[in-house]
């Protein structure tokens, strides 16, 4: 069984927001963990929704839906 990887708000927001200062690092990290199951909390998903509600609303909705279907 593979280890699960916990993802936090910073990682998800940086991965989606191309203008985020950590976007390049988040992309690299995403490639490294692509074969592992990702987990998070409802609180993190709430923060992601709030952080991305403006310019990245659709992307935020998609990522939240993905985690709720896992």
From TrEMBL:
<protein>
    <submittedName>
        <fullName>PilT protein, N-terminal</fullName>
    </submittedName>
</protein>
<dbReference type="InterPro" id="IPR029060">
    <property type="entry name" value="PIN-like_dom_sf"/>
</dbReference>
